[in-house]
C-alpha cells in the first residue's frame, strides 16, 4: 500500500513538473522557494569568498589589494546574476547600487550598471492582462495601434508606443504584473540576509539600502503618484522654457497603467547625437545643472533617477532651441526645510573653500568626525581639491582614479556614513553621482558655470528662508539688498569669465594691456 502511494505521489510530482515546465504562463522564478533559495545561496557563496580568499594575506599588501579587487569583481558578477534571475525588486536595488559611482568599489558599480539595459520584459499576454484588469477593455478597443516591442523596459515596468482612437500618439507605461506581489517579500528577504551578513562582518552597514527600498518602492509602484509628481515638477519649473515634461492622460491611468504624451529624443549622455543635431553640449549641461539646483536648493522636491534613459534632449525644429525632456517621475525626494538649509550652507562653504563651515554643516548633517570623507563623497573630489576650492580646477584623470580607489579603501567608513546621515541624503548622493556621470560623458564636469548656478540657487534659498523668519520690514529689506548684491557679484564674475574666454574679451584685454604699456 505504502509502495503504491509512493508511486502515485511520484507520478503526480512528475506530471506536475512536466506541466509547469511546459506551461508558458508559469515561470519557476515566480515561486518563492526558488527566489529565496537562489538569494540565500548567492549570499552564502559571496560571504564564503570574502571570508576565505583574504584570510592568510597580509592586510595592505599589493597582493591583498589585488585579491580583494578580484573578490569584489566575482561577488559583483554573482550579485548581477542574482538580480537578473530574481528580477523586479532585485534589479531595482542593483541599479541603485550601480549608480553609486564614487561611493562603492568600481568593480561593483561597473558590473551592476548593465542592469539598466538588462531589465525583464513582460509578454503580450501579461500586458493585455494588466490593461484588461485596470482599464476594463482590450488593447484593440483603446488604441488604433499598439507596438508590441517596448520602447524601454525597466525593473518595475515597460513603456510602449501607441495611438489612441482619437489619433493622439501616447506612451503607455505598464507595470510588470508580478512585481506588486513579490516586492514586499523580496524586501523582507533582503533585510534578513543583510542582518545575517552583518553578524559575520560587523563593519557591513547596508541596512540603509533596505530602509530606502521599504520607503520608496510602494511609491514607485503607484503610477498615479508618478503622474502627480510629473505635474507638480512641470508647474514648479514652468519658468524654464527648455524643460518638457510629458502631459498625463488621467482618464486612462491607474496605479499600474500610466498614459502620457509621447516624447522622443537622444539620451542626455549621447554627445555624438547632440553634435549631429546641432545641439550645444555645454548649454545642455548648464541647463541640466540649473534644473537640479532649483529642485534641490530652492524647492526641496527632487527627481532622483536622472539616469540617461530618463533624460532626453531634442532640438525643436520650429524655434531651433534645445529641449530637455524629463521622464520617469516615480522616485522623488522631499527635503525638509532644516535639511535643505544645512545642505545649501554646506555647498556654499564647499564652493568658497571655507573649511570651518564645511566641518560645521557636515556635522549637522550627521557626518561627525568623518566630515572630510563626507565632503569628498559629496563633491567626488579629493580632500586636497576641496581645501583648494572645487571651482578652482577641473577634475583630472588621476584625481578621478584616486576617488574611485578610495571608494574601495574606505568602504567601511563610507557605509558607516551612509548609515548615519539623514535618509534624505541617500537619494541626493545617488542623484549627484548620476549627474556627474552625465557631465563626464559630455566632458563638462566641474565647470565654473555649474558652481555659479548652484551659488545663485543657494543664495536665493537662504535669503527666502531668512525673510520668512524675520519680523521687521527693515530686516527683510536688508536681507533682500544683501541677496541682490550677492547675485550681482555672481553675474559680474560670470561676465568676466565669458569675456576671458571670448574673442571680444581677448581684444579688450590686449587693448587694455597696450594702453597700460603706452602710458609708461
UniProtKB/TrEMBL annotation:
Domain called Protein kinase: residue spans: 145-474
InterPro entries associated with the record: ABC1_dom, ADCK1_dom, Kinase-like_dom_sf, Mito_struct-func_regulator, Prot_kinase_dom
CC annotations in GO: mitochondrial inner membrane
Biological processes, Gene Ontology terms: lipid homeostasis; mitochondrion organization
Pfam families according to UniProt: ABC1 (PF03109)
Taxonomy, superkingdom: Eukaryota
Gene Ontology MF terms: ATP binding; protein kinase activity
Protein family (similarity comment): Belongs to the protein kinase superfamily. ADCK protein kinase family.
Role, per record: Appears to be essential for maintaining mitochondrial cristae formation and mitochondrial function by acting via YME1L1 in a kinase-independent manner to regulate essential mitochondrial structural proteins OPA1 and IMMT. The action of this enzyme is not yet clear. It is not known if it has protein kinase activity and what type of substrate it would phosphorylate (Ser, Thr or Tyr).
Protein name (Swiss-Prot/TrEMBL): AarF domain-containing protein kinase 1
Native organism: Anser cygnoides
